[in-house]
Amino acid sequence: MLAATTDLLRLIAVPALGWAAWRDVRTRRLPNRLWYPLFAVGLLTLVWDGLSHLPVAGVDDRLFFVRVGISVLVLVPLAYGLWWVGGFGGADAKALMTLAVLFPTYPVFYLSTGAYPAVVTNVGVFSMTILTNAVLVGLAYPVYLGVRNGLRGDQSPVMFLGRRTDVSALPAEHGRLFETTDGFTRDGLDIDALRMYLRWRGTSLAALRAAPAAHRDPASVGETNEPTDGAVDGSAVEGEAAPGEAAVATDADADADTDVEFDDPWAAERFLDEIEGSAYGTAPETLREGLAVVTTRDSVWISPGIPFVVPLFLGLCIALTYGDLLFGLLRAIGAV
């Protein structure tokens, strides 16, 4: 492989972003320290390339600085803005900001089969190519979900947006419930918030399902625990009920009066008042509705909530090899 030294240095983003995508799918948590070395490499290569275009003596030099300006001054604020309005997670925004600094212009890699990326846009801003590739890859995911659900016989109004999951598997899942007791919703209970609630109560989903009426009584909540941030850690609290726990809970539920109205069912308001933060924007009624769903059904529809870091990684890999998917498509139909 022949390439500029700065372009070779930028390839560190491939394994780093690949690891980030894998970890984000499994845990929905990425350490901030991941982005610092990548950002440092981006600044180093940006300064290195910038010095090679000084003094500005021709069109190529001017184009380089224009492309850097578009990448840094457009994509970085865009990523921050999407995070600010809730369209991006924090890790997604940091990943896009980092790529905007790392890849402001197109790299070139010479292999025995030719020069790559193969399809280069007229604009020449490589971070924009990564972003548009990621968006196109992300748009393919609902199609995959719809086909998958159709083949499994899981048909519903949300079959292109979610998947049916056994409630017993929720402690190891990520995403958001698509269901309420009355139908479907886009604003269901966040599964991380469910894990926080279970840890706060010091119980398990299996115990709640064994005795929902007893657990609905706010007086059943005694000493509470640190809720953490809801990440999956495989703890016993969120797994199966401890030996004897389900049996005891079932006895308690048999004695519970299901017609009693409580001021704070499930102690939802107490939970949200005691914890630090907002449990991913969960409101008391959303928590109560979600608990009613997961304690009365064997399977539920959930939004998988695939983090944008995953299509960003795939978009980067496609960009480094094929190039710009959107530009290639438009060129193929004669639009450019």
From TrEMBL:
Keyword Coiled coil: no
Annotated region described as Disordered, given as residue ranges: 215-254
Chief place of localization: membrane
Entry annotated with the keyword DNA-binding: no
GO cellular component, one term: plasma membrane
Ranges that cross the membrane: 34-51, 63-83, 95-119, 125-147, 306-330
Prepilin type IV endopeptidase peptidase domain location: 12-141
GO terms, molecular function: aspartic-type endopeptidase activity
Biased composition (Low complexity): 236-251
Topology of the protein relative to the lipid bilayer: Multi-pass membrane protein
Locations listed in the record: Cell membrane
Enzyme Commission (EC) number: 3.4.23.43
InterPro entries: Preflagellin_Peptidase, Preflagellin_peptidase_C, Prepilin_IV_endopep_pep
UniProt KW keywords: Cell membrane, Hydrolase, Membrane, Transmembrane, Transmembrane helix
Domain Preflagellin peptidase C-terminal: 297-325
Descriptive protein name: Prepilin peptidase
Taxonomic lineage: Archaea, Methanobacteriati, Methanobacteriota, Stenosarchaea group, Halobacteria
